[in-house]
Amino acid sequence: MSFHAGRWGVILDAGSSGTRLHIYRWEDPAKVIKDADYEELHSLPKIKTKKKWTKKLRPGVSTFGDHPEDVGTEHLQPLISHALDVIPESKHADTPIFLMATAGMRLLPDLQREAVLNQICSYFRENTQFALPDCNLHIQVIKGETEGLYGWIAANYLLGGFDDPQGHSHGKNHHTYGFLDMGGASAQIAFAPNATEAEKHQDDLKLVRMRTMNGEPTEYRVFTKTWLRYGVNQARERYVLDLIDSYLVAGEHEVPDPCMPLGLRTTEMGEVVHGKSSELQLVGTGDFQECLRRTKPILGDEKPCETESCLLNGHHYPEIDFDVNHFVGVSEYWHTTHGVFADKGEKVYDYNTYQKKVEGFCSQNWRDIESTIESRKKDHAKDAQEACFKASWFISMLHDGIGIPRVGIEQTLTPDINITKGIGEAAKEKGFLEPFQAVDKIDDIEVSWTLGKMLLYAAGQVPPQQNAEHLPVGFGSNVKGVPGDFQHAGSNWTNIPYDGDYDDWAEDLTEDLVDHVKSKSGSGFALFILILLFVAYIFRKRDRRMRLYTKVNSIFRHHHHRRPGGSRKGGRGLSLLTSKFFGRGSHQYERVLEAGDAAQFELGDVDSDEGDYSDSSGGSRVGRTSGLATPKLNIESFDDLTKSAHPGSAIDRSGLVVRTESRERLVPQMLSAGKRSRAGSPTRMKSPLMSPLSED
């Protein structure tokens, strides 16, 4: 395997309840192409990310509408500092930065929204050297349909349907998966209709164009729709208002709420009421069937359908063929099925089983429920308090609104067809054969729409095929060529220099080995040291060799100190063993470390998991790590690129995918990245972000 130049990308998902920083990395396409094998050439760019490359903060940027000048210092600073720490400084100018806001910012007045966006762009430009050539492109409020489309791209990329269409065949020449997302303020759907529906609804579809590593364009036709105010928080607000209008009696202050456990009392805003109170309060009755009846009207099913087929709220859409359209649900679809009601190890959603669990839980007395969560985090109580309404809204949206069949109760639209016939082996292995399945991660990577955005950006960096029509990467109306509303990926295929890249990939290798060896001893650790010697040889420059040595030596010493019966003098072994590779003075660096020179250490990040906030339902999952940051490795890993090949075929524009030539197609790969801009941007030395930041 060869190693190439690394690209980075930064994207902040500004949701209604908080902002989530995502950092992605991929190899420079121009370098990969030079010695890529067949599978790599016929796959999309391979993108990687890590949990420690993310950071989450609350509340959302939309809360700065009336004081936008504070959004940088009071909200963005910790996120940007984290990105500056993760991405090598030499890569900053070539790293694009995006902030894309969703439902929360869509609800702000126009003037406030523009003021917040302008302040964000100014803050990025003044405090980083990241590539930000166009504020309108990089800092924006995206439409719900765009959010859903990015999510569809991310899910199918991780599942492998793009690179291995035959392996993920669901029958009827269909190989992609549908996508459902629900946050706190909005909900989205995106799917590629079957060939018949795609032909009938060409004007309702979006054209999505990407580019594989050989420069060949790939095109998909996707239907996407968003419902603002159909996220769980907004739906709950509408439900409570309707409840009060229906049941509040003049002179009284209590309103029965069937969507709360028996005996639970809360304010209109959801705060638990303790003791006697004369303020308006909701009183749980624990009647889930009544909860379902009260929730369903919020869908807006009473609105007339003026066309042949409609989704909830009277919206026209292509009919969903559930024989081939298998949906994955993320965000609240995942939390609502795998939070309070999930059994350990349970993966597949089953309507009957789920409803029985919900009914049993919601009929309990709140005191009994509360007693089981006293020893847990406070947020678990919040989850339990909201679980019944969320479950009711989930069922209403999924089955009554979108029409997902209740497996075991309702038949699919074409029950005479054997849906397992023609199913690809990869699809069977993934297990996504039911009409709906909730997911959080796929192959340990979070299913986030931000990944879809970065995949488009990375694909836009792939050089197009020579002597072929140059079709840009991005999406727009479903017409041939480049539609007038086409939204470009925002990237190009300019090469970047190799400086520092061997350092990048070697550190990737080192960290993967460290993670593996931590659970090993004896011969495993000896093998690790031998491989590190080879890595050190690659570091021809002395400063690179010494930097790696410093990191590896600290691991070596830690490894021996933590072993039962280990001796402190074991830490000297690496110095004696590696002096020939790292230089004659290697032992001097070890003495510096023993003396406690902090400059030789790289402080590890404090993992402050402050909730799942990007347009989430309210950030109820809070995890904190207390204590000081301790020295640790901060190195990246790389992935195995070997996959198996499968042949595919081209389809016309009304179908699901068009490729310019037939070929074998393969398994999932990942993203690509940035432009150089603003040579005169302020340096980090001038930035106020360089002051130490405290972690909660």
From TrEMBL:
Q: What keywords appear on the UniProt entry?
A: ATP-binding, Hydrolase, Membrane, Nucleotide-binding, Transmembrane, Transmembrane helix
Instruction: Report residue spans for region: Disordered.
Output: 605-627, 667-696
Instruction: Please note every region of biased composition (Low complexity).
Output: 614-627
Give the top-rank taxon of the lineage listed in the UniProt record for this protein.
Eukaryota
Active-site residues (renumbered) = 147
Q: Which GO terms describe its biological process?
A: CTP metabolic process; UDP catabolic process
Q: Does the keyword ATP-binding apply?
A: yes
Give the residue spans that cross the bilayer: 522-539
- Gene Ontology cellular component list: Golgi apparatus; membrane
- Which sites bind ATP? 184-188
Q: Which InterPro entries match?
A: GDA1_CD39_NTPase (IPR000407)
The answer to whether keyword Transmembrane applies is yes
Entry's family note = Belongs to the GDA1/CD39 NTPase family.
Q: What is this protein called?
A: GDA1/CD39 family protein
Q: Which organism is it from?
A: Pseudomassariella vexata
